[in-house]
UniProtKB/TrEMBL annotation:
This is Contactin associated protein like 3. PROSITE patterns: EGF_3, FA58C_3, FIBRINOGEN_C_2, LAM_G_DOMAIN. It is found in: Membrane. Residues 105-277, 283-461, 705-870, 921-1105 form the Laminin G domain. Residues 1-99 form the F5/8 type C domain. It comes from Lates calcarifer (Barramundi). The keyword Zinc-finger does not apply.
Length: 1206
C-alpha cells in the first residue's frame, strides 16, 4: 500500500471481504520508505527482534484494530498473509491510521559536509541537547563534530554500525585526552534511527532509538562550550565522511538543516549537499533457517575463459554454506563456505586430491562482507572485502565453470535438483549477487520469475543484534549466533545463563551455617544486586580491615595543636553499608593510652577529641568506646571505676602515670570509625597512643527472618515484584503438608508462581506472554519432613531454572524470539494465593527476591494467621555441632553448646591446645556424679567401689605433639592408688601402664611402633564402653610441628620408681583436645579458670599447636573460591604420610593391650556390666592422695575425688 508520502502510522485495522468467506486470521506487517528494504512492524511485543503475527479476523464483517506500541514513519505498508479462513480464500479490507509526516532532510554523498559557525551564548544553559535522525548503508562515517573555543570537542560517528560519542580535550591524541561511549548496533540497515544527547552538569544522557545510556563525564571534560565555535555535519578532518541522510537535526533548539536550507550566512556548504534523501536500492534476502536455500539457473553460457561469482553477506554464525555448484559434465563440485569464521573454498574432482583455499577472519561479526570467486586463464582467486580484505590463489589444471547455483543450502531430500551440502546451512543475509559480472534481479526471484527458493525473506535483511543491549549481567561478555546468544561469566563471580546469580554467600553467617570454619571468604552482600563481592575474614564473624589497626604512637607535629588520622576500609561504601545494615551486631574497638594527655574533658564542656563515624563522611561523635552516643563519656564512667570520680574518662584525670580508656563501639549508626581527632597531644610531657580496631560484624538478620503460616488460608502480601528481564527467588521452607503455594504474583496475563505440588516435587511456573511454562524438580525423599529445604529459582530471557537443596538444577529454555518482559501488577502473595486456595502451611525463611530480603517477621506481626519467627532448627542443623557439642534452640536460630566437648568454636570444631613452659602443670580435682544414694552400697572396700565405677567405663581422648622421650602423656588415678598411665618410653614407643588393684604391682604393655616423638600430631582415643576397650588412632600432621615445651610433673611419692622418674622429667610439647568423660581440664584451665576446680602452676598459653588443618607458621594465601565448594580461601601446606603402616600397627597394639587389660579385669570383676549398688566409704578411710596439689577445696580432696594431672 502506497500512502502517497511519509506518514506517521499509529494503528491498522482489517476486515474480511464483503459478503464472502474470505478473511485473514493472522498476518505480518512491513513498512518502507522506498518500496524496498522492508522492516517488520512489531505487534507491541517486548523483544526487540520479535516477529510475532498480528491476530486477524474471525468473520468477514467485524473490524479488528491494532494500535501500534510505537508509531511507525513510512510511505509504504506491506501486509503478508500467514493464515486465513480454511473455508475461504485470502481476502481483506485494510485501514491505516496516522498523520502526514514533514521533516527537514539533508543528504551527503560521502564527500560533502556542512560547516556551522554558531554565535557564543551570553550564559550557560541548564540543559543542552543534540537530536537528529539518520539512515545510511555504510557502517562508518562522521555524523556531527562540535568544537568550542577551548578546543574541547564532541563527535558523533558511526563505526562498524555502532554509534560512538567521543569527548576530546584539546588536539592531543593520547588516551587520557579522549572519552568514548558506544551505543547501538547494526545502524547501517538503511532505516531511520533516532539519536539524542542531553548534557547535564556532570553527566550525559545518550539515546539511540529506544535505548538510553547514562554517562558520567570525567572531571576533565566538564567544561562545555561546543556551541561557541565550529559545528560540522557529514565530516571531520581525516575521518571517513558520512554517506546517507540526516533529518531534523536540532542543536540546542536550533534547526541546523533549516538554517542550511535558508542559506544562512553562518553555514558553509562543501561538496554536493541536497535537501532530499536520495538512497540507492539494494535488495537483500534473509536465510532464516537451516532449510533456507536459493537456486539460480546458469544465466550465461559456460565460457572457456572462466567465470566469476560475487556476493555480500552478513551473519553471526561461524559456519555455513554460501555457495555450491557442480563442475561441467558432472566432474566434481565446488563449495564456498564459512568455517570458524573464515572463508573456505573446496573443490572435489574425482581422482584428484581436494583443492582447498581459505582467507579472511572474524567474518561472523554481523558486518557486511564482500566475496568474489574468480577463475581466469587457469588462475583461481577468492577475495574477501576487496582492497581492505584478503585473497587466496590457486592454479588448478582443470576448467572451473558454473552450472546451476545454490546459495545458502540445498533443497530437501527428494528434490529433483541435485545438490549436496556436507556443511552447515547458512543463516544470515545476502545481497548484490553477481554471476559473470551480471547482477541477479532478486525481485524476479521473489516473483517466482527466475530460480527457486525456500524459507527466504526477500527484500529485507532480518539480522538482529542479541548482544545490544546485552542481557549479560555483572560484566559478563556476550557472544551470539543467528538464533541465540551466550554469556561468558568467567571472572565475574556470578553464574547462570545471564551471569545473574552470585556464586558466593551473602554473609559470614550463611557460610557458618553451611558448616564452614573460619577463613577468608568472598561475601556478596546483595546477592544478584549491583554491589560486587568482597573478600573478608570470617571468624565466623565478618572482619573488615582498614589502613591502620595497630597501636599507633602519637608524635607531636610542629605547628599543629591536634593530631588527626583517617581510616580507609578494604570495602567499598555500598558494601560497608549493606554489611552493617544486615548484620545483627557490629562492633569496633577504640582505645586511647595516655600520660598527661586528656581525652574528652575541658572546663567549658567542649570535647578535646572526637571521631567521625557512620556512613559517608560520618558524623562527629564525642563518646568513647564502651559509652553511649552523645554522652561525652568513656566506659569507666558507666562502670563507675574511673581513676578520678570527678571525670568521666581515665585519661581526663591528667595523671603523670600511664592510663587508658578503651571499649567497644556497638551502635551501628555510628560505625565504622572514619577519622579520629586528638586534641591534647602537644603539652610538655604529654604522651599518648591510640588504636582503632577492625570493624567486626556477626549474625545476619536476613538468614533467620522467618514466618510461620498456621493455616492454609493465611498469607502475607508485599508490593509487586519487579523482575521484568531477570528474576531470582530463594528461600528455605519446612512443612508437614504435602502441597501448597509458596509464592505468587499476577499480571493481566503474566504471572509467576512457586509451589509444592506434592510431597516430593516443587514447581516453578510463569507466563511472560508466550503461554504458561513450568519447570519442576523432584526429590528422592519427602519434603514434608519438617526439616529445612532450600529453593533457588531463576528466570531470565534465555531460560528458567529451579534448584532444590543440593540436587541438580532443572531448566527450561525460553522460546526463541518470544516475549521476554515479565509484566506483573498485583500484590506479591507469600504463603498463599489471591484466591486463598492451595495455601502453604509451615515455615518460610530467608526469602530473597533479586538479592533483596523481604521482612517476613515485621509483616507477620500485623497479619492474622501468621506468626513471626519459626523455631525448630536443630532438626536440620544439629549435625553441625561436632565433637559431642549439643545443639541448642534459639528463638530465631540455634547455637552449639560445647560444654561437654574438648573443643570450642561456633560448631565445637576448634581444638583447645596449649604449649607449656618448663615447670608448668595443671591439676583438675573433680567429684564423680554417682547414682542416687551413695550409702546404699553393700561393700566397704574402696577398691571394689572405684574399680567398678572408674576404670570399667572411662572415656579418655587427647592429642599430643612432642620430640621428647621418655615422657608421661596421661595419668589418671583414684585415691585408692589405682591408676592408668600413657607414656612414651625412651625408645619413642607408646606404653600403657596400669594398676587395677592397689595390692598388686603395675602391669606394662608396649607397642612395636617407633618414632612417636617425631614432632607431629598424634591422637589417642578411648571410647566409652562397658569393657575397658582402649583404642588409639595416629594421624600425621599436615603442617610443620611447633617446638614448645610442657612440664608434666606430679609428685612421685606413691608411684613406682620408673614411672616416678619419667614423671620427674616433665613433658615438652603440645597437648590438645584433652577429654576425660565430659570434663576437659585443658579447656577449663585456658577458657574458664575462674569458674572451674582447676589449678595452674607456671605459665600457660593457648596455642594452635594441636591443629591438623594448617601449618601455624604458614602464611595464608588467598584465592578465588571454587563454585560449590564452600571452603575458606586458605591454602594449607600438606605432606604425604609415609606411616600408614605405623598407624595400623599402633591401633593393633593398643587394641591388643586393651583386650589383655579387659581380660584380666573381667576375670577379677565378673558381671561389672550388670546393674550394681554403689558402695560408699567414709572420708576418714580415704588414704592420702598420691600427689601434692592445689585444689579449689579448702579441706583437700573429698570422697569420690580423683586427680587428673597434665
Amino acid at each position: 500500500v502506497d500512502l502517497g508520502g511519509r506518514t506517521q502510522i499509529t494503528a491498522v485495522a482489517t476486515q474480511g471481504r464483503y459478503g464472502s468467506s474470505d478473511w485473514l486470521t493472522a498476518y505480518l506487517l512491513m513498512f518502507s520508505d522506498t518500496g524496498h528494504n522492508w522492516k517488520q512492524i512489531s505487534t507491541g511485543g517486548q523483544y526487540r527482534s520479535e516477529c510475532t503475527a498480528f491476530p486477524g479476523n474471525t468473520n468477514a464483517d467485524s473490524v479488528v484494530q491494532h494500535k501500534l506500541q510505537h508509531p511507525v514513519i513510512a510511505r509504504y505498508v506491506r501486509l503478508i498473509p500467514l493464515d486465513w479462513n480454511p473455508n475461504g480464500r485470502i481476502g481483506l479490507r485494510l485501514e491505516a491510521y496516522g498523520c502526514p509526516y514533514n521533516s527537514d532532510v539533508v543528504s551527503f554523498d560521502g564527500h560533502s559536509s556542512l560547516l556551522y559557525r554558531l554565535s557564543p551564548r551570553l550564559r550557560q544553559m541548564a540543559r543542552e541537547s543534540i537530536s537528529l535522525k539518520f539512515k545510511t548503508l555504510r557502517n562508518s562515517g562522521t555524523l556531527l563534530h562540535a568544537e568550542g573555543l577551548s578546543e574541547h570537542s564532541l563527535t558523533l560517528e558511526l563505526k562498524k554500525g555502532k554509534l560512538l560519542l567521543v569527548l576530546r580535550k584539546g588536539r592531543s591524541s593520547s588516551p587520557d585526552s579522549r572519552h568514548l561511549v558506544s551505543l547501538g548496533s547494526l545502524l547501517d540497515d538503511q532505516h531511520w534511527h533516532q539519536v539524542a544527547v542531553e548534557h547535564h552538569s556532570n553527566h550525559l544522557n545518550v539515546t539511540v532509538d529506544k535505548s538510553t545510556l547514562w554517562v558520567q563525564i570525567p572531571p576533565r571534560f566538564t567544561h562545555w562550550d561546543h556551541d561557541q565555535g565550529l559545528s560540522s555535519l557529514g565530516s571531520v578532518r581525516s575521518n571517513r565522511n558520512f554517506y546517507g541522510c540526516l533529518e531534523n537535526l536540532v542543536y540546542n533548539g536550533v534547526n541546523l538543516v533549516d538554517l542550511a536550507k535558508q542559506r544562512d550566512q553562518r553555514v558553509t556548504t562543501k561538496g554536493n549537499v541536497t535537501f532530499s534523501c536520495a538512497e540507492p536500492i539494494f535488495v537483500a534476502m534473509t536465510f532464516t533457517s537451516p532449510q533456507s536455500f536459493l537456486w539460480l539457473p546458469r544465466v550465461t553460457e559456460p565460457s572457456l575463459m572462466g567465470m566469476s561469482v560475487g556476493l555480500q553477506f552478513r551473519t553471526w554464525n561461524k559456519a555455513g554454506l554460501l555457495l555450491t555448484f557442480d563442475l561441467p559434465n558432472q566432474e566434481g563440485a565446488v563449495w564456498l563456505y564459512l568455517s570458524k569464521a573464515t572463508l573456505h573454498l573446496q573443490i572435489h574432482k574425482p581422482g584428484r586430491a581436494p583443492l582447498e583455499l581459505s582467507t579472511g577472519s572474524a567474518l561472523n561479526d554481523g558486518q557486511w562482507h564482500s566475496v568474489e570467486l574468480i577463475s581466469r586463464r587457469g588462475r583461481l582467486t577468492i577475495a574477501v572485502d576487496g582492497d581492505e580484505g584478503a585473497t587466496a590463489h590457486a592454479s588448478p589444471s582443470f576448467l572451473i565453470a558454473t552450472g546451476q547455483l545454490f546459495f545458502g543450502g540445498c533443497p530437501a531430500e527428494g528434490s529433483s535438483q541435485e545438490c549436496m551440502n556436507p556443511f552447515k546451512a547458512f543463516q544470515g543475509c545476502l545481497r548484490l549477487l553477481t554471476v559473470d559480472n551480471q547482477q541477479v534481479d532478486l525481485i524476479k526471484v521473489q516473483q517466482r520469475l527466475m530460480g527457486n527458493y525456500s524459507h527466504l525473506q526477500i527484500d529485507m535483511c532480518g539480522i538482529i543484534d542479541r548482544c545490544s543491549p546485552s542481557h549479560c549481567e555483572h560484566g559478563g561478555s556476550c557472544s551470539q549466533s543467528w538464533s541465540t546468544f551466550h554469556c561468558n561469566c568467567t571472572g565475574t563471580s556470578y553464574n547462570g545463563a545471564t551471569c545473574h546469580s552470585s556464586i558466593y554467600e551473602q554473609s559470614c553467617e550463611a557460610y557458618k551455617h553451611k558448616g564452614n570454619t573460619s577463613g577468608y571468604y568472598y561475601i556478596d552482600v546483595d546477592g544478584s544486586g549491583p554491589i560486587r563481592p568482597q573478600l573478608i575474614y570470617c571468624n565466623m564473624t565478618g572482619m573488615i580491615q582498614h589502613n591502620n589497626t595497630e597501636l599507633t604512637r602519637v608524635r607531636p607535629s610542629p605547628g599543629k595543636s591536634r593530631h588527626s588520622a583517617h581510616f580507609e576500609y578494604a570495602s567499598e561504601e555500598k558494601q560497608l553499608a549493606a554489611i552493617i545494615s544486615q548484620s545483627e551486631h557490629c562492633e569496633q574497638e577504640l582505645t586511647y593510652h595516655c600520660r598527661k594527655s586528656r581525652l574528652l574533658h575541658t572546663p567549658d564542656g567542649s570535647p578535646l577529641s572526637w571521631w567521625m563515624g557512620g556512613l559517608g563522611e560520618g558524623q562527629a561523635q564525642t563518646h568513647w568506646g564502651g559509652a553511649t552516643p552523645g554522652s561525652q563519656q568513656c566506659a569507666c564512667s558507666l562502670q563507675e571505676n574511673c581513676v578520678d570520680p570527678k571525670h568521666h574518662c581515665n585519661c581526663d584525670a591528667d595523671h603523670n602515670e600511664w592510663a587508658n580508656d578503651s571499649g567497644l563501639l556497638t551502635h551501628k549508626d555510628t560505625l565504622p570509625v572514619r577519622s579520629l581527632v586528638l586534641g591534647d597531644v602537644q603539652r610538655p610531657g604529654s604522651e599518648s597512643a591510640y588504636r582503632v580496631g577492625p570493624l567486626r560484624c556477626h549474625g545476619d538478620k536476613n538468614v533467620w527472618n522467618a514466618a510461620f503460616f498456621d493455616k492454609e488460608t493465611s498469607y502475607l502480601h508485599f508490593p509487586t515484584f519487579h523482575g521484568e528481564l531477570s528474576a531470582d527467588i530463594s528461600f528455605l521452607f519446612k512443612t508437614t503438608s504435602s502441597s501448597g503455594v509458596f509464592l505468587e504474583n499476577l499480571g493481566i496475563k503474566d504471572f509467576i508462581r512457586i509451589e509444592l505440588s506434592s510431597s516430593t516435587e516443587v514447581l516453578f511456573s510463569f507466563d511472560v506472554g508466550n503461554g504458561p511454562l513450568e519447570v519442576g524438580v523432584k526429590a528422592g525423599f519427602p519434603l514434608n519432613d519438617d526439616r529445612w529445604h532450600r529453593i533457588r529459582a531463576e528466570r531470565n530471557v534465555k531460560e528458567a531454572s529451579i534448584r532444590l537443596d543440593e540436587l541438580p538444577a532443572a531448566t527450561q529454555e525460553a522460546p526463541a524470539d518470544g516475549h521476554i518482559h515479565l509484566q506483573l501488577n498485583s500484590q506479591l502473595f507469600i504463603g498463599g494465593t489471591a484466591s486463598r486456595q492451595k495455601g502453604f502451611r509451615g515455615c518460610i525463611r530467608s526469602l530473597q527476591l533479586n538479592g533483596i530480603t523481604l521482612d517476613l517477621e515485621e509483616r507477620a506481626k500485623i497479619t492474622p494467621g501468621v506468626q513471626a519467627g519459626c523455631p525448630g532448627h536443630c532438626s536440620s542443623y544439629g549435625s553441625l555441632c561436632q565433637n559431642q557439642g549439643r545443639c541448642v534452640e534459639r528463638s530465631n536460630s540455634f547455637s552449639c553448646n560445647c560444654g561437654p566437648s574438648a573443643y570450642t568454636g561456633a560448631f565445637c570444631d576448634r581444638e583447645v591446645s596449649a604449649s607449656f613452659k618448663s615447670g608448668t602443670s595443671i591439676s583438675y580435682t573433680f567429684k564423680e556424679q554417682v547414682v542416687n544414694e551413695l550409702n546404699r552400697s553393700n561393700s566397704t572396700h574402696p577398691s571394689s567401689i572405684y574399680s567398678d565405677m572408674t576404670l570399667r567405663a572411662e572415656n579418655i581422648s587427647l592429642s599430643f605433639r612432642t620430640t621428647q622421650s621418655p615422657a608421661l602423656l596421661l595419668y589418671v588415678g583414684s585415691y585408692h592408688r589405682e591408676y592408668l598411665a600413657l607414656l612414651l618410653n625412651k625408645h619413642d614407643k607408646l606404653e600403657v601402664r596400669y594398676r587395677l588393684d592397689s595390692s598388686k604391682d603395675a602391669e606394662i604393655l608396649r607397642s612395636k611402633v617407633r618414632n612417636l616423638a617425631n614432632g607431629q600430631l598424634h591422637t589417642i582415643l578411648r571410647p566409652n564402653q562397658c569393657s575397658l576397650a582402649l583404642s588409639l588412632s595416629l594421624s600425621l600432621s599436615l603442617s610443620l610441628s611447633l617446638s614448645r615445651s610442657l612440664s608434666f610433673s606430679p609428685d612421685s611419692g606413691e608411684l613406682d620408681p620408673e614411672l616416678a622418674r619419667i614423671a620427674s622429667l616433665g613433658f615438652t610439647g603440645c597437648l590438645s583436645a584433652v577429654l576425660f568423660n565430659s570434663i576437659s581440664p585443658l579447656k577449663a584451665a585456658l577458657l574458664h579458670p575462674d569458674t572451674s576446680p582447676v589449678t595452674v602452676i607456671g605459665p600457660l598459653a593457648q596455642s594452635i599447636c594441636g591443629s591438623t588443618s594448617a601449618n601455624p607458621y604458614a602464611a595464608e594465601t588467598t584465592h578465588h573460591l571454587s563454585v560449590g565448594t564452600g571452603q575458606p580461601l586458605v591454602n594449607a601446606i600438606r605432606s604425604d604420610s609415609a606411616l600408614i603402616g605405623g598407624v595400623i600397627a599402633v591401633v593393633i597394639f593398643v587394641t591388643v593391650s586393651a583386650l589383655a587389660i579387659t581380660a584380666r579385669f573381667l576375670y577379677r570383676r565378673k558381671g561389672m556390666c550388670q546393674s550394681q549398688e554403689i558402695k560408699t566409704v567414709k572420708p576418714e578411710d580415704s588414704p592420702e592422695l598420691p600427689f601434692s596439689s592445689q585444689t579449689s577445696s579448702h579441706n583437700g580432696p573429698s570422697e569420690n575425688q580423683k586427680e587428673y594431672f597434665i
